[in-house]
Amino acid sequence: MKIWQKALDYFVTGMGFGAIIYLVILGVTYENIGDLRVPLNSVFIVFVCSGLIGELSFLFETTLSYFWALILHLIGTFVLFSIMMLLNHWLINWQTLLIFVITYAIIWLIIRLIQEKDIRRINRQIKKRNG
Q1: How many whole angstroms separate alpha carbon 112 and alpha carbon 127?
Q2: How many CB atoms lie within 10 A of CB 24?
Q3: Given CB 3.0 to 4.6 Å as the disulfide criterion, which of 23, 34, 49, 106 pairs with 84?
Q4: Domain count, the chain
Q5: What is the pTM of this model?
Q6: How far apart are the C-alpha atoms of 104 and 114, rounded to whole Å?
Q7: At residue 64, what are phi and psi to the nearest 5 degrees?
Q8: What is the pLDDT of residues 28-73, one digit of tens each?
């Protein structure tokens, strides 16, 4: 796969996760806030920052250990999250930080489960060919 295709895949995947999280947060807070008006520039900023977070996934394809790749990914994700919050003039407090940590953990759990499912599928195919 060409590098630009892989970069586009990472970007689109990041945008997808970001969009889902953004919609869930809007849906959960709607009851507490009332009628929400979502500016188009906020949506654009969420998409771009989420896409850039997806780009950070390249760290897991380097020679870095998984631990260091994860640490750098977490730091980069937090920086981009903070930029998104600041550009949208959204409050950064302990609640938003808690949401960040929980969301990061949930996304990594989902990704790990998908990876494990793919590995099991590939292993079954290999056994089928060899058997």
Answers
A1: 22
A2: 11
A3: 49
A4: 1
A5: 0.74
A6: 15
A7: -65, 150
A8: 666 655 566 777 788 888 888 888 888 888 888 889 998 999 999 9
